[in-house]
What does this fold into?
Amino acid sequence: MRSAMDRDAMDRNGGDTAALHAELTDLLQLEHDALPAYSVAISGLRTPEFREALTSFREDHERHVRELTALIRDLNGMPIAMPHLPTGLFKLAVQTAGLPGGERAVLLAFLSNEWQSKEKYARHAARPHPPEVAALLNRCAEDEARHYDWACGALDRLGCGADTAVGRAAGAFARFHGTVADVVEGGGRMAMETAVRGLRRR
Ligand SMILES: [Fe+2]
It folds into this structure.
């Protein structure tokens, strides 16, 4: 458990605790967006290699949840164990829509969701943070880049790589889908930050 003195040091070292709390909550919700979408994707895959890869990646996300939850608790925060609304549901819908199309459609939908996770963690990892938080965000960013790279390679082997018409269309959709989700989730993060500041002032 982090002491009040440590939290004060975190305030001085990495900006204010309300902003950090809101940022970590947003990322925890990103993980809760990902977990059900992973389960849907795994259920739609038949190739053992693909199922094993996504099962292992889902374990990375479960670790992210544990580590983000512990950090939020250390900040005296309440971890939110639920997806973003409505973007988490939309990500799940994107993944579910891929199911009837077989392995390629499932992995194309997976790639779209992973693009946002990869980009979002990379952006957050690049910001200044206290060392313990920076180490966690860097690990998560590396995991997400690895998941995304794996999906690109698997789609390449299935003939839907980034150089193909299908791959280009999927990439454009991923950027649109991810950018919209970022804007909506950014609004939620600011509302959370304002609420935490109000609670801390009382
Ligand atoms: Fe992932």
The chain has a mean pLDDT of 88.
